[in-house]
Specification:
By secondary structure, the chain is an alpha+beta fold. Helix content is 38%, strand content 17%. It contains six helices and six strands, in the order αββααββαββαα. A hairpin with a 5-residue loop joins β3 (67-69) and β4.
Length: 186
């Protein structure tokens, strides 16, 4: 009897039934993103470790990234997040882009983390970014996109809620109430 070789720990196979759900989800993400004027982009799955070392925290780079040395001697990582790749792409074309830039991507990421229920080392993530604007209206747009997505997948307001937090507003409320800085955590 042959020994079956399972998928790499923390990854999973997508049989046709699961792939159909994944494709439907991707198409829903695409539809919602484009309905708000966002353009799809993609970055490499493999990136230089130097990019993440420059743009991410030490724990992500040293403990949570899949890192290997390629045959040319370069340290490479499977992308654990998209922000450094996005920043690299924007910097490379900065003089050519119109801002605000509205970009979205949906794809696989990898983090070498402790396995937990519902959390694997390979995961798919929807990234939606508005670049070049910092305003309450931009924040509201991102919340509206989340609400449109939840509605598009059939979740009504009695099944899902969006909670918004604003650290500056909370700090102002604490100050107005006279709560001392050392007591704010409690």
């Amino acid at each position: 009897m042959k020994t079956l070789i399972p998928p790499v720990k923390g990854t999973r196979d997508f049989y046709p039934e699961q792939m159909a759900v994944r494709t439907w989800l991707y198409e829903t993400v695409r539809g919602v993103s484009e309905s708000f004027g966002y353009q799809e982009f993609e970055a490499p799955i493999l990136e230089s470790l130097d990019l993440y070392a420059a743009k991410s925290g030490e724990e992500l780079v040293k403990k949570q990234s899949y890192v290997f040395t390629d045959r040319g001697g370069d340290e490479i990582t499977l992308r654990p997040e998209l922000t450094p790749s996005l920043a690299r792409m924007i910097a490379q074309k900065q003089g050519e882009l119109a801002f605000p830039a509205r970009w979205w991507s949906y794809g696989p990421f990898w983090r070498y983390e402790k396995m937990q229920r519902g959390r694997s080392r390979e995961f798919f993530q929807w990234n939606i970014d508005m670049l070049g604007v910092n305003s309450p209206e931009a924040d509201a747009e991102l919340v509206a996109i989340a609400a449109a997505f939840l509605k598009a997948v059939g979740l009504s307001s009695d099944k899902a809620r969006i909670l918004v937090n604003n650290r500056r507003l909370m700090e102002a409320e604490f100050d107005a109430l006279g709560i001392l800085p050392e007591k704010k955590g409690a």
